[in-house]
Amino acid sequence: MRFLVRDRILGIGDDYWIEDDRGNKVFLVDGKALRLRDTFELKDARGRVLVDIRKKMFALRDTMVIERGGDPLATVRRKRLSLLRNHYRVSLADGGTELDVSGRILDREFAVEYDGELLAVISRRLLTVRDTYAVDVVREDADPALLIAVAVCVIHLAEKEREGQKD
Questions:
Q1: Cα 118 from chain centroid (whole Å)
Q2: 100-143 pLDDT, tens digit each
Q3: Beta bridge partners of 102
Q4: In angstroms, how far is the first alpha carbon of the chain from the final one?
Q5: pTM of the predicted structure, to 2 decimals
Q6: Residue from 130, 122, 153, 121 nearest 42 by CA
Q7: Do you know which Gene3D superfamilies this protein is assigned to (predicted)?
Q8: How far is Cα 144 from Cα 131, in angstroms, rounded to an integer?
């Protein structure tokens, strides 16, 4: 299942639609302005909130939390001991499941894996639409909303890290 995301530098207050490969609006990423921490909501086409995405306020490393219905679903942070700078770990709330995200995050060329099995590929390489990247959900039983939320988180964290290095 392929979803197309119009690329923009994610900032607080940015709202943007995610479309399926037929051009239908499927998800809305709703950036919440005027909050103390970076906050997004992933909504369906009818405006129902599917997941909340928030930057964790007090953490040693930049961390984002994904919640569904007020319950924690996943925590996203850059992998601590990695030779690759663009390597993130997603810890699911079940306590045992971890997803690995690696690749060139800022170039929108990365993959999400579970236990060595590919779940999703994020890429702009094969698209002719300018400033757009695709989120290809490979496994049919995977949760597209969660995988899109993971992509939003890692891109946001990588861009925040890049901004911090410029200062």
A1: 16
A2: 999 999 889 999 999 999 999 999 887 766 678 899 999 989 99
A3: 87, 111
A4: 39
A5: 0.86
A6: 153
A7: LURP1-related
A8: 21
Rounded to whole angstroms, how far apart are CA atoms 70 and 57? Answer: 17
Q: What is the tens place of the pLDDT at every residue in 71-94?
A: 999 999 988 665 556 789 999 998
Rounded Cα–Cα distance for residues 103 and 12 (Å): 25
Kindly report each contact of residues 75-84 with a partner whose C-beta sits within 8 Å and lies 24 or more positions away, as own/partner.
Answer: 76/101, 76/150, 76/153, 76/154, 76/157, 77/157, 78/157, 78/161
Look up residue 154 and give its two tokens.
Answer: 């890692």
Show the domains of the chain with their CATH numbers. Answer: 2-166 (2.40.160.200)
Cα-to-chain-centroid distance, residue 102: 12
